[in-house]
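Today's session is about reading a structure prediction critically. Students often jump straight to the picture, but the first step is always the sequence itself: look for stretches that repeat, for charged clusters, for runs of hydrophobic residues. Only then move on to the predicted structure, which in these notes is written as discrete structure tokens rather than atom positions. Here is the chain we will use throughout the hour.
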Amino acid sequence: MSLESSLRENSYPGRGIVAGLSADGKYAVCAYFIMGRSVNSRNRIFVEVPEDNGIETRPFDMSKLSDPSLIIYHPVRVDGHTTIVTNGDQTDTVRNGLDKGFTFEQSLRSRTFEPDAPNYTPRISAVLNVHAGNYDYQMSIIKSEDGTEERPIHCTYSYGKPVAGEGHFIHTYKHDGDPLPSFEGEPELVKISGDIDDFSLLIWDSLNRDNRVSLFVRFIDIETGATESRIINANK
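Below is the predicted structure for this chain, in token form.
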């Protein structure tokens, strides 16, 4: 499907991850965006963390920060040849698990969805493995099966042979609502087109202008591992 259409037709997908392969087949592609409805959620920016080759969320205005527990974290970290992208502090859970020899799926077994009743926001995660011309990626969602805190389910999806110009998109919420309904089904198969600037602008311009907060996009050269990244923040 068209990623642009998917985003334009949904005023509040929440937080979203895209992983895939560039149209020319040269780059592993990942994108992560956050949205917000409350003052606390909207009061954020993405900031690069050079020593980690990743990013972190930070408050834009410290005077408006009311609860940092679920909004301040490292969405992107790099562990060797693996880029980890998540919507919460499970980024560190995945990295620590990989360092101990666990798989992506095993690393997340200890986690559940966010404790923000009645939404029970899903934890979405992805890893992109790029090394010496080889590339594969995995995605995960941990959510409430029935809208309660009693029944967490873990779903992991593995993509061993990425196709040029294609990727997968997973997001926290099916659409806006009260409470917010969790994402349903498998990650959506979407088209990936253009260079990093084209792709970044396509996503940013397609997100709801009232709710979009920050966007991170990275292209990773599959042969060399070299990275190029973009950050767009609504707060400036």
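Discussion point for the tutorial: The radius of gyration is 16 Å.
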